[in-house]
Design goal:
The protein is of the alpha+beta class. Helix content is 41%, strand content 19%. A seven-stranded antiparallel β-sheet has the order 4-7-16-9-10-11-12, with no helix packed on it. Strands 5-6-17-8-13-14-15 form a seven-stranded antiparallel β-sheet. The longest helix has 94 residues, at 115-208.
Length: 474
């Protein structure tokens, strides 16, 4: 009786059935890698005709020659009486419907031993791998959200630090200017008081004698010197602030807006009489659209990062070029200009084309078209295949240039220049754009090669910029 009870406990505690045949182990063997155990006849049938053998349970690779007898399980199976084994076989047979048996027999026709079990374990393994993949993807998604949140928090913190630093520098700078102004004011007031005392003395002396001593003559150089000293200090502060502002503008507009598209304000329309916009506003918010006779030929042109001098910074979605106080970190390019010029990315070989350039923010510039093969040191309008209008010189005069020949135009400085290229007629015309188009000059062009919009900025020692005005087709 006790032996029967121990046997029942043994069967409940240890699974002594093979996963392939679902019967008690017959000559159990252990796989070398994963240590799962199967009947030797079952594992031999399972491996028949396969080039690659994998465990039916965990899909780990193994070699049939590496299997080893599982003597422990064999010893446990040997303890089970034969009548118990036969009883379990009969029970399994009774539980299996005859229809199922017939179906199984039919479905197993043409199958080699172990093929059905292999398909079942293939599907089980695929389900397991798919569930694991879903788990890993959800884990990666959670990590990505957490990382993005950390980055956003860090960016917010960094910008807060920059704003605090700039505000602190602003307070310190204003405090310095106020202190210098008070010091200069005190010196001037002291000088005025001293001069008033001297005036009173001179009046008394004048009353006593008509001869005014040389040593009592009016001296006004002290206040003048004080004023000059104050002006110099304030100019130094102003210059330093301008340099800082310029560097921030280059850093933010050149680096930041190239990586991320700017957020457009809800209302892009400005009043027509607004004539003073910052360079950033001019790039983000195009100037008021004016009905133009050339609108039907308007083209969207942008500056080429590979055809720009490294002391010119391109910003605002490649629509603005400005003088930089230090070289810009562009990618190496064999076509990069060695002088302060830039070309556009787009070229034209047929048809009519029109674009506009805002020139009011530069004291010296040239706007024109050029052949692609213009030299890196060739100045716009000084070659056979380049044409331009130019505002330059101490007299601030407007000229047209081609083949190094200048034509004075005797016009005021245009604040916006329109370029109309007619390739069928082989002509390019330049217009001053206000509330109407005023023709500045027309060239005949004698080339069949594609032409590119081209620009030149004068004097790298001065801040200046050109902005391509977005003009919609009508």
């Amino acid at each position: 009786m006790a032996a029967a009870v121990d046997l029942e406990r043994l069967l409940d505690a240890v699974d002594l059935s093979c996963a392939c045949c679902l019967q008690y182990f017959t000559d159990p063997v252990r796989l070398a890698g994963c240590t799962h155990t199967f009947c030797r006849p079952c594992i031999n049938r399972y491996c028949e005709g396969k080039q690659r053998t994998r465990c039916p349970l965990c899909w780990a690779d193994f070699k049939l020659k590496d299997v080893r007898p599982n003597r422990e399980l064999a010893a446990l199976v040997s303890l089970i009486p034969q009548e118990v084994k036969e009883e379990d076989l009969e029970t399994q047979g009774e539980l299996k419907p005859s229809g199922a048996v017939a179906s199984s027999d039919r479905s197993s026709e043409g199958r080699r031993p172990g093929e059905k079990e292999e398909e079942i374990w293939d599907i089980s393994k695929q389900l397991e791998m798919t569930a694991e993949t879903i788990h890993l993807l959800r884990k990666d998604l959670s990590k990505a959200k957490e990382y993005a949140s950390q980055i956003k928090s860090q960016i917010t913190k960094d910008f807060c630090c920059m704003k605090e630093y700039i505000e602190r520098q602003e307070r310190n700078t204003l405090m310095f200017i106020e202190q210098e102004q008070k010091a200069a004011q005190q010196k001037i007031e002291e000088t005025i008081h001293q001069l008033c005392v001297e005036v009173n003395e001179l009046i008394d002396i004048k009353a006593q004698t008509s001869n005014l001593p040389e040593r009592h003559r009016y001296k006004g150089s002290a206040s003048t010197m004080n004023k000059i000293t104050l002006d110099e200090k304030l100019n130094v502060v102003k210059s330093a602030v301008e340099v800082l502002k310029r560097k921030l503008e280059i850093l933010l507009l050149e680096k930041y807006t190239q990586q991320f598209p700017p957020v457009q304000p809800p209302d892009l329309y400005q009043e027509t009489n607004v004539c003073s916009l910052s360079p950033e506003s001019a790039a983000k918010n195009p100037e008021p659209m004016i009905s133009s006779q050339f609108s039907q030929w308007a083209d969207d042109v942008t500056f080429d990062l590979a055809r720009v001098y490294d002391r010119l910074a391109i910003t605002a979605q490649n629509r603005k070029v400005m003088v930089s106080s230090y070289p810009t970190d562009y990618e190496p390019s064999p076509n990069r200009f060695c002088i302060s010029q830039v070309m556009c990315l787009q070229s034209f070989s047929t048809g009519c084309h029109y674009w506009e350039v805002i020139t009011k923010d530069s004291d010296g510039w040239a706007v024109g078209v050029a052949h692609e093969m213009i030299g890196k040191r060739d100045k716009l309008g000084r070659t056979e295949h380049s044409w331009c209008v130019e505002w330059l010189g101490p007299k601030k005069q407007l000229s047209a240039w081609h083949r190094d020949q200048e034509t004075l135009l005797h016009k005021d400085k245009p604040l916006k220049v329109g370029v109309f290229l007619e390739l069928q007629k082989k002509a390019v015309s330049f217009y001053s754009i206000t509330d109407k188009e005023t023709l500045l000059h027309t060239f005949e062009i004698n080339t069949s090669n594609p032409l590119y919009p081209a620009f030149w900025l004068y004097s790298l020692e001065r801040n200046g910029s050109l902005t391509i005005n977005h003009t919609n087709r009508r």
